[in-house]
Design a protein that fits this description.
- Belongs to the G-protein coupled receptor T2R family.
- Keywords: G-protein coupled receptor, Membrane, Receptor, Sensory transduction, Taste, Transducer, Transmembrane, Transmembrane helix.
- The chain is mainly alpha-helical and 327 residues long.
- Helices cover 75% and strands 1% of the residues.
- It has ten helices and two strands; from the N terminus they run αααααββααααα.
- The protein has helices spanning 4-38, 46-74, 81-113, 120-130, 132-147, 175-216, 223-258, 265-286, 288-303, 320-325; strands spanning 154-155, 169-170.
- α2 runs antiparallel to α8 and α3 packs antiparallel against α7 (223-258).
Length: 327
């Protein structure tokens, strides 16, 4: 069980994480907006479009989680429990959108990085990748339609456990409610997780094969291509690792709420905040030009204050892989 002090700590941490998440995601949005304005056709490439959608959803999630944590700490007697329940449903909807959009980004990079012989499956892949906007619209609509029924499972006020319980909490009272929660966990956590793991396995296999081909060939013809791909591969695999760790923790904490009837929902919300912060950092770091520009801006800011010069970060001129293979 979480005490009121534990909930306060979770609230403060969520606020700190919200600042970081909003910073990284606003940075991604501003860079993508600049790319959009610079492009001749005024269009974003599919990867940037998916990243823009993830960033907007991540900022929304952080704002919603902070509001929910605030209500959970302040409203101890559950005067506005319906508002808390609605916020919770919105949080789960946006979380669903982020997970599926991230799975879609991994899927997109998987199709671009891994060249497979043409068959039925690859044709389906190509068709999906061609309609990025439509797929994202379907993900957003699915997020809300799959989560709104959660309102029927939420307990708006649960006077048990000496007033420590969360006002709007997921505690199904019947088999239908329990079945729905299990359905939600499978559709929002496990299915996108399977897609991401499948894509990461094919990307890793492609990378291993590529490295073996490079060893075998003496002319180093594959070098430049691998140099430009390496950072994207690292980013995609990092996103998958972060996601898998989060899903395991998320399922465990949700089970403590649903099955053990504990008031640990604040932890579920806190872990969602941690996930958005880490994944936003991975997305910024994964694009070399974005990261380079961020470091340069940070160092320029420190130039204004000579006493902070020791906090400067060294700017990386070239990637080791590009340097060793790209010439």
């Amino acid at each position: 069980m979480l005490s009121s002090v534990d909930k306060l700590v979770a609230w403060v941490l969520t606020g700190f994480l919200a600042i970081l998440t909003i910073f990284f995601n606003m940075y991604l949005l501003l860079i993508n907006q600049r790319n959009y304005r610079k492009s001749a056709k005024h269009r974003l490439n599919p990867a940037d479009f998916i990243i823009t959608a993830i960033s907007m959803a991540s900022i929304s999630l952080q704002v919603l989680t902070y509001f929910w944590q605030t209500m959970d700490v302040i409203d101890t007697v559950c005067r506005i429990s319906l508002a808390g329940a609605i916020l919770l449903v919105l949080i789960f909807s946006v979380k669903f959108i982020i997970f599926w959009s991230t799975a879609f980004l991994t899927f997109y990079y998987g199709t671009k990085l891994v060249v497979e012989p043409v068959h039925c499956y690859t044709r389906i892949q190509e068709a999906i990748v061609k309609h990025v906007h439509t797929v994202l619209a379907v993900i957003v609509v699915s997020g809300f339609t799959n989560c709104i029924p959660l309102l029927s499972v939420l307990t708006y006020y649960n006077g048990t456990s000496s007033g420590l319980s969360d006002c709007g909490s997921i505690m199904p009272t019947d088999t239908t409610g329990l079945a729905y929660v299990f359905y939600y966990v499978i559709i929002s956590d496990i299915v996108p997780g399977i897609i991401m793991v499948k894509c990461s396995i094919s990307i890793s296999y492609h990378l291993a094969k590529h490295l073996l081909d490079m060893k075998a060939s003496t002319n180093g013809a594959h070098g430049p291509k691998l140099g430009t791909q390496m950072r994207v591969i690292k980013m995609t695999l990092s996103l998958v690792v972060v996601f898998v760790i989060f899903v395991i923790v998320d399922i465990f904490t949700q089970m403590t709420v649903v099955l053990m009837r504990q008031n640990t929902l604040a932890l579920t919300i806190l872990f969602a905040s941690i996930y958005t912060t880490v994944s936003a950092f991975v997305l910024v770091y994964g694009k070399k030009s974005y990261w380079k520009e961020l470091i340069a801006t940070y160092n320029l800011f420190l130039d204004e204050y000579p006493c902070l010069n020791s906090m400067k970060v060294e700017e990386v001129k070239t990637e080791p892989h590009e340097h060793s293979h790209g010439h």
